[in-house]
Write a structure and sequence with these properties.
It is a single chain. With 94 residues, the protein is mainly α. 71% of the residues lie in helices and 0% in strands. It has four helices and no strands. The chain has helices at 3-21, 23-43, 46-67, 71-75. Helix 1 crosses helix 3 and helix 2 (23-43) packs antiparallel against helix 3 (46-67). The protein binds zinc ion. Residues 82, 84-85, 87, 90-92 line the site of zinc ion.
């Protein structure tokens, strides 16, 4: 599944609830799921980490849908590599 397909799936699955919940609550959920991902990275299994990556991606797609923006367009910022130095791999000073 590519990003546009995933974003559309999230819109069809959760779009109505997302609209009722609103952007502020969605940001809060995204932050909470990001915290759960951080915990899974620190002390979870690969299965836990995959689960949390999926949840973060789902909430990110829900937010993009509410903003009327495309994750594919957002990813395009990195299409030519690092948006600062325009290189692959990045050659920016650490
Ligand atoms: Zn760079």
């Amino acid at each position: 599944m590519d990003l546009p397909e995933f974003q559309d799936l999230m819109a069809r699955t959760y779009g109505e609830r997302d609209a009722a919940r609103g952007q502020a609550a969605t940001i809060a959920w995204l932050a909470e799921e990001t915290g759960e991902l951080a915990r899974a990275v620190r002390k979870g299994s690969a299965a836990d980490q995959l689960h949390e990556l999926g949840d973060v991606l789902a909430w990110l797609a829900s937010l993009a849908n509410q903003l009327g923006l495309s994750l594919d367009d957002a990813a395009a910022r990195y299409a030519a590599g690092c948006p600062v130095c325009r290189s692959i791999p990045c050659t920016c000073p650490p």
